[in-house]
Design goal:
Blueprint lengths: L1 H15 L13 H17 L1
């Protein structure tokens, strides 16, 4: 059940959150780093 919840969150992230693909992580703002960390956390928990 936990993996299913995270898979749903990953799908919602793709639709709702901005894509940070091809951006330098060192040049991101604090909010963008938080979004990137959240997306990474949900992705690793869904696998």
């Amino acid at each position: 059940m936990k993996k299913q919840l995270f898979k749903i969150l990953v799908k919602l992230n793709k639709v709702l959150l901005p894509s940070l693909y091809k951006k330098d992580p060192m040049k991101l703002s604090t909010v963008q780093k938080a979004i990137l960390g959240y997306k990474y956390w949900t992705l690793t928990n869904s696998l």
